[in-house]
Amino acid sequence: MVKGNSTVEGDTTINGNVSIGKDIVVNGNSTTKGDSIVEGNRNVTGSTVLHEVTINKSLTLADDAKIDLGNSDIEGNFDIYGDESKKSLSQALTQLQMTGPLVYVDSQTGKDVQRHTDVVRLNSGSDKPVRVTNVAAPKDTHDAVNLGYFNKQLSLNMGEVHNRINRVDRRLRGGIASAVAMSLLPQSYRAGESIVSVGGGTYRSASAIAVGYSRVTDNGRVVIKIGGSASKVRLKI
């Protein structure tokens, strides 16, 4: 029994059990050749290098914890816990598939599997859709499109459609006004008579003037009519 301080400069071998009631501080290096069992909690404030670790039950990470695997390989089967339920690795890879080759170890064959996919799907763990933010404007025909770019292009295309509709509407109003003017042209009815006539018409801010020539043959059996019109359409309806 050592009640005070003890300094051992050489080697010390303890064949029995050792119980330490208070804290123990090791300033130098410590090497444990056998197995080490920790029944309580263990807090590591600094860096820890683990060459081979076996976890028999569970490993819980804090909310802000991060794991950097680097070029490490992950083998075996394990479950990934989400907010509501746990998922196997294959299910997690199905829910979040990334373009390009994805390599993982097959649990049955033990070989590396390179998985290719043409579909990228984001799943929050439920049937609710998810949002993808900070998407840049596309540069290629196969790039993703954000809402701002889509609305801008839609506005430009709709403006062009409106312009075409307006041009068709102006032509339509001018044509109807010309038809009204042509219908008001009088014609000759007596045999051997020739007349020149003028008519006018309007329709929805469009106006037209028509000029015609008509002649009845001497025998009164044939009527010849020639006419033309010109219209003007105001831009505002």
Can you walk through the features of this model?
The chain is rod-shaped and about 150 Å long. With 237 residues, the protein is an alpha+beta fold. The chain is built from 2 helices and 7 strands. Helix content is 19%, strand content 19%. Among the domains are: 78-131, no CATH class; 149-233, GSPII I/J protein-like (Pantoate--beta-alanine Ligase, Chain: A,domain 2). The longest helix is centred in the C-terminal third of the chain and has 37 residues, at 147-183. The mean pLDDT is 76.
Which geometry do the CA atoms define?
A: rod-shaped
CATH homologous superfamily heading of the domain at 149-233 = GSPII I/J protein-like
Structural class: alpha+beta
Q: What kind of sheet is the major sheet?
A: 3 strands, antiparallel
* Residue runs with pLDDT of under 50 for 5 or more positions: none
Extended strand count: 7
Span between termini: 110 Å
Q: What does the average pLDDT come to?
A: 76
The CATH architecture of the domain at 149-233 can be named as 2-Layer Sandwich
The DSSP helix count reads 2
Q: Please estimate the helix content.
A: 10-25%
Radius of gyration: 46 Å
CATH topology of the domain at 149-233: Pantoate--beta-alanine Ligase, Chain: A,domain 2
CATH class term of the domain at 149-233: Alpha Beta
